[in-house]
Amino acid sequence: MIATTRRAALLSAFATTGLAAFGGSARARETGSVAAAVDTFAQEVMAAFPDQPGLGVAVVENGEITLAKGYGVKRLGAPARCDENTIFGIASNTKAMTAAALAMLVEEGKVEWDAPVTRYLPDFQMIDPVVTKLMTVRDLLVHRSGLTLGAGDLMIWPDPKHSRADIVAGLKYLPIGGQFRGGYAYDNVLYVAAGEVIAAVTGKPWEVFIQTRILSPLGMTDTVPMPSMVDRSRRAEPHCRMGPPVRGLGPQTVLPFDGSFDSAAAAGGLNTTARDIGKWMRVQLALGALPDGKRLWSEASAREMWKPQTITSSSDGPTAENPVRPSIQAYALGWFVQDHRGERLLSHTGGLAGFISYTGLLPGRKSGIMIMTNAEENPVLRSLRYGGPDRLQGRSDYDWIASSKRVKAESDAQLLKDVAAATTPKSGGAKPSLPLSAYAGVYRDPWYGAVTVSETGKGKTRGLKVSFDKTPALRGKLIPFDGETFQTVFDDRTQEDAFISFDVANGVVTSALVKAVSPLADFSFDYQDLRLKKEK
């Protein structure tokens, strides 16, 4: 009730005194004025963070696309420039499109938001039969299932061989870490299930429905629904800092092209351009209406998709250090909803290897911004995701670049301490209690599949190697770390290494638990959700 009261007071103040109560300026009414401000700001951000390779930016003002532009280069050290036609992966910004596809099917009477998922996917199961029975189509989209953060993501990342059917079948083995409809924890795998609902009721794969019913009508001719469909000659190349000591620190590195994620396309497969994505923002802000007056979905459906469903966070509101901190944030159908300096903001972020992005819409202004980047540079995205909406409001009175540099410096300093603690053996690097051969074998998790540990070499060169059998990228050495805990050294050094801790009973290895080495590892490396049992 405290958050609710705070929110009511905030809205009341806005209704009574207007934007001035929040330190705001008058609305920027002249079409194009926001575009100029955003363009200038994007150039300032690029200058402030010279390790950022490129950007794609789109702006909609009062329902009109006024900016679609590229900045920087597709690849560090190479001359090819980013422009309005450069393709970026936008990952979880895809989720709003999956929600819109379902809204269209709801209007056609083929789907009901609050019908059980089993009506459309009879084999759908969660680990708890009560949750299976109660889970609705709406529940698939709003991150309140009881699954833990990123649970099951090793079935979709990095480039595993699980099919969509495998992913949906694996849901019945994922442990519930919270209460069904009792709280928020972000997931991807249930959006895969949502995509399969679309396929089940239309007879078309998710990507075909998205192409024919959304992308083509919008004229998004340079956008593809899955990474494998990308014209690589036009795509920005992904970048990341690969250490030392961990991913997120060190010099900028070009990552190999990753054409994976097709199985999870409904959760994050879209690849698009600055020129195209403005059309998507425009139809969102027009409540489903196209420029010619035709509709992709009704106004009622648009408002249903924007309606808050799951509270994600609450606070005391803005501070001097963060003047846009929302008093309350919630998740709707494919969108986060919150207040931004007294106005409703719809937003989402997206992240894949070497690409992070942000969409922000201010419906009251019929204005929005899309930021697409080809590097995992959080201070760059932070500067733009906060400074961009500010400029949609006609203001630039807070230095988001300096703020983001400060936050980055503080987080890096803490990260180094956390990494040192995580990589210091608590038992002083004790030797394993058993011969290496005792740890070899096939370990199986019910939702992921098999992880194989095998011996290599002889004599002094004897060692272990590990293979996550459905994920070719997760294969390499397994070296002793501390007692029964070993550390992976994957051949593909762009992947996050893991600690594998073996359970020993009566001199026999019986099972193992896994967790990421780096405290900064993306939550989609959900090693901690594995429950590996050794096969006899």
Using DSSP, what is the number of strands? 20
Helix content: 25-40%
Low-confidence stretches: 1-30
| SS field, number of helical segments | 13
What average pLDDT do the residues reach?
Answer: 93
- The helix-and-strand class reads alpha+beta
Tell me the strand percentage band.
Answer: 15-25%
Overall radius of gyration: 24 Å
With strands numbered from the N-terminus, the spatial order across the biggest sheet is 2-1-12-11-10-9-8-7
Tell me, briefly, the overall form. Answer: globular
Largest sheet: 8 strands, antiparallel
The end-to-end distance, rounded to whole angstroms, is 54 Å
What would you say this structure looks like, in words?
- By secondary structure, the chain is α+β, with helices and mostly antiparallel strands.
- Helices cover 28% and strands 22% of the residues.
- The protein contains 13 helices and 20 strands.
- It has helices at residues 2-17, 33-48, 95-107, 129-134, 137-141, 164-170, 189-202, 206-218, 265-268, 274-285, 299-305, 378-392, 400-422, and strands at 54-61, 64-72, 88-89, 239-241, 252-254, 271-272, 310-314, 328-331, 336-340, 343-352, 355-362, 367-373, 441-445, 449-456, 463-468, 475-482, 485-490, 498-505, 508-516, 532-534.
- The strands form four sheets. It has an eight-stranded antiparallel β-sheet, sandwiched between helices. An eight-stranded antiparallel β-barrel has the order 13-14-15-16-17-18-19-20. A two-stranded antiparallel sheet has the order 3-6.
- Helix 2 (33-48) runs antiparallel to helix 12 and helix 6 (164-170) crosses helix 7.
- The model is unreliable at 1-30 (pLDDT under 50).
